[in-house]
UniProtKB/TrEMBL annotation:
The modification 4-aspartylphosphate is found at residue 60. May play the central regulatory role in sporulation. It may be an element of the effector pathway responsible for the activation of sporulation genes in response to nutritional stress. Spo0A may act in concert with spo0H (a sigma factor) to control the expression of some genes that are critical to the sporulation process. Required for high-level post-exponential phase expression of a series of secreted proteins. It comes from Candidatus Pullilachnospira stercoravium. GO terms for molecular function: DNA binding; phosphorelay response regulator activity. Pfam families: LytTR (PF04397), Response_reg (PF00072). Gene3D superfamilies: 3.40.50.2300, LytTr DNA-binding domain. Residues 3-126 form the Response regulatory domain. InterPro entries: CheY-like_superfamily, LytR-like, LytTR_DNA-bd_dom, Sig_transdc_resp-reg_receiver. Residues 154-245 form the HTH LytTR-type domain. Keywords: Activator, Cytoplasm, Phosphoprotein, Two-component regulatory system. PROSITE patterns: HTH_LYTTR (PS50930), RESPONSE_REGULATORY (PS50110). This is Stage 0 sporulation protein A homolog.
Length: 248
């Protein structure tokens, strides 16, 4: 679901924008949800730091705070380079600043025409939904997570295997580009991924596309990078059945 963030220091307008978005989503089957509605850009930025998906941002430019809308957008881009930013303002001359800050806004909407504003908000939601649907059909599947302060978007095809770290609630993701440590459980990760990933052992979740040998006697799976992942005896038959079905 695409999270939607709204930041406007005029409380009356803030509620109106939230109402526009909420009403529109009620009548359209869009993959979106309202994640944060606030007059405070600092609250907005705190929420963005904890998000795992690209978001939609409706921002007032002239916020009565230490951070204005364009500066907030600049900070957002550090956490969400792929999100969609829409500015709402009473000052059309501020549009040039958007280009100066290189924040790549989807739209620049003027407050002075309420009916036009409402229509433009709807159009922005429609545009994002179309782009989102197109990206899901063209782009490779991604596993999204956080590693420390960094957000990761790892293509399934680059992941070798997941390994639980003994004595902790951490996982180690082994990829073709290197390893990443995250806080997660193998059970939860397994539910997110597709059938190419097989739970070979309580501590391993393996991308079978990278497996080159299933050693029953040794109790391991040999990966393309020559690393070994444990294979429990009770999982062998299930693995063989899974691979047989894939080859039908």
């Amino acid at each position: 679901m695409i999270p939607i963030y709204i930041c406007e220091d005029n409380i009356k307008l803030l509620k109106k924008y939230e109402e526009y978005v909420s009403d529109y989503l009620c009548f359209h089957d869009f993959s979106m949800r309202i994640a944060c509605v606030t007059p405070d850009p600092k609250t907005l930025l705190a929420a963005v730091q904890n998000a795992d998906e690209p978001g939609i941002y409706f921002l007032d430019i002239m916020l009565s705070a230490s951070v204005n809308g364009i500066e907030a957008a600049e900070q957002i881009r550090k956490y969400d380079p792929d999100g969609w930013i829409i500015f709402i303002t009473s000052y059309p001359e501020m549009s040039s600043m958007v280009f100066q800050y290189r924040v790549e806004a989807l739209d620049f909407i003027l407050k002075d025409a309420p009916q036009s504003l409402k229509r433009r908000v709807f159009q922005c939601l429609e545009t994002v939904q179309k782009r989102y649907e197109k990206s899901r059909t063209i782009s490779p599947k991604l596993y999204c997570c956080k590693s420390g302060a960094h957000k990761l978007r790892l293509p399934y095809e680059d992941i070798l295997y997941f390994e639980s770290v003994s004595g902790s609630h951490k996982l180690l993701i082994h990829t073709t580009a290197g390893n990443y440590e995250i806080y997660a459980s193998l059970n939860d990760v397994e539910k997110e991924l597709d059938k190419r990933f097989f739970r070979s052992h309580k501590s391993y979740l393996v991308n079978t596309d990278y497996a080159i040998e299933f050693n029953r006697a040794g109790g391991y799976i040999l990966m393309r990078n020559q690393e070994r992942c444990l294979l429990s005896v009770r999982k062998i038959r299930k693995l063989e059945h899974s691979l047989m079905n894939d080859n039908v």
